[in-house]
Every structure is written in structure tokens, then in C-alpha cells.
Amino acid sequence: MLIFWSWVFLLLGVVTCALIAADVRRRPQHMAIMNVTWPITGLYMPVLGWWVYQKMGRTARADQGHDASEHHQHGGHEHHGDKPQWQGVFVSATHCGGGCTLGDITAAPLATALGFTLFGSHMAGHFLLAFVAAYAFGILFQYLPIREMGERSPKAGLLDAIKADTLSLIAFQIGMYLWMLIATPLLLDGQMDAATPEFWFMMQIAMLVGFLSSYPANWLLVNKGIKHAM
Question: Which residues form the DUF4396 domain (predicted)?
Fold first, then answer.
């Protein structure tokens, strides 16, 4: 039964990702990195990701002639009318989640293929590779919009990206790890095998848990002025 639901939710994630990607192509985001972030969000938020994208991220098409009146940029981040803070923080969390998810997706097959271990534990080895890759992509996802604004030097932009994303990224990974620590022995027979659909279904859930655990961190960073609500 688990393999059935694994395929169902994985396919729904792929379809949601594809629908968002197709829509983003026709309605490009003001911040270029969100053209990548929103489809990635669909991977771990099957169906729900499409609704969230429509409500919080979708821009007007340029040929509709009212893009400027409905959506505008402020401080390099896009705003949709009078978006409440919780929505701005929510979108900021998807931005963090996009980098983390891409890193986790990259690291998992590598950990399985290499049989990488840490202190003799394959799970610990997987977590280490996942953190390194997630951190690299997460900082990149923050750095690119900062450089896009052109207001900071490369070094200053990198430092700003590290300050803005480190806490939220760690919170995301902790949530993901906690779920995998529970799911691996209970549902995966103790094996983290990236060649199975069951593993990716658990990772899909883990990424959603990571998103939820990163939300308070993003709220704190926004309130402290370290990070902008999007």
C-alpha cells in the first residue's frame, strides 16, 4: 500500500511542479529566482502548491497591461498589493525551502550511490551530504536576488545571504531530519535508499515538515529586519 501512495503523491508533485513551471513561463516573477522556487515548491506541496502559488505568487501577464498596477517591487522583493505579513513570510519560507529541497534532491542519490557513511551510519552520512548541498543551494538562492539588485558588492552580498538564510535553512533541515528519523525505521525498514519511490515519498513529507519548521525562523528574521518578507 505504501508504494501505491508513494507513486500517487510523487506524480501529483511532478504534475504540480510542471503546471507551475508552465504558468511561470507565461507570467515571469519579478525576482528571477522565484521562477525556480515556485515549481520546486510544487514538488513537495502536491496540489496545495498550485493553490499557494496562485494566491501568493502568481503575477499578471505582461500582455494584460496591468502588471505594474497589481504588483511592484520594493527593496528587490516582490509584493502583491497589501499582502499580510504571514503571507510574505510564507513566501520567504518557500524561497528558503527551494534551495534546501534542491540540495536534498541532489545529495540523496549521491549518498545512496556512494554508500556514504558518517561514524559508520548511512543515515548520518546522508544527513551530512544533504546539509552541505542544501546550505550551498540555500545561500545561492539568497545571493542571486541580492546581486540582482546590484546594490551590494559580491562579498557584502554573500555575507548578507549567509545572515539571511542560515537560521531558516538550519530550521528547515532539522524538520526534515526529524521526519526521516521517524519514517526510516518505521516505514522504510531502516534503509534510506534513493532508488525507491517510498524513500522519495518520505522525503516529500520531510520537505513539507522542514518548510513548517522553518516558518518561525523566517518570521523571526523578518521581524528583526535581517530578511525581507516577500
Answer: 85-227
pTM: 0.87
**pLDDT at res. 43:** 97
Element spanning 217, H or E: helix 197-223
What residues form DSSP beta bridges with 169? none
Would the pLDDT of 15 be above 60?
yes
User: Torsions phi, psi of 100, nearest 5?
Assistant: -60, -45
Phi, psi (deg, nearest 5) at residue 16:
-60, -45
Q: What SS3 class is residue 78?
A: strand
The residue ranking higher by pLDDT, 223 or 62, is: 223
d(CA 88, CA 93): 9
Residue with cell 543551494: 137
Contacts 24+ apart (CB under 8 A), 121-128: 122/192, 123/180, 123/181, 123/184, 123/192, 126/192, 127/177, 127/180
CA distance 164 to 146: 11
- The total of structural domains in the chain comes to 1
Other CB atoms within 10 Å distance of the CB of residue 218: 29
Residue 179: inside a domain: yes
Residue type, 36: V
Q: Is residue 45 domain-resident?
A: no
Q: Is residue 194 part of a domain?
A: yes
Give residue-wise pLDDT tens across range 188-212: 999 999 999 999 999 999 999 999 9
Residue span of the structural domain in which 211 resides = 82-223
d(CA 168, CA 149): 22
For the stretch 141-177, pLDDT in tens is 999 888 887 767 888 889 999 999 999 999 999 999 9
Residue 207 lies in a domain: yes
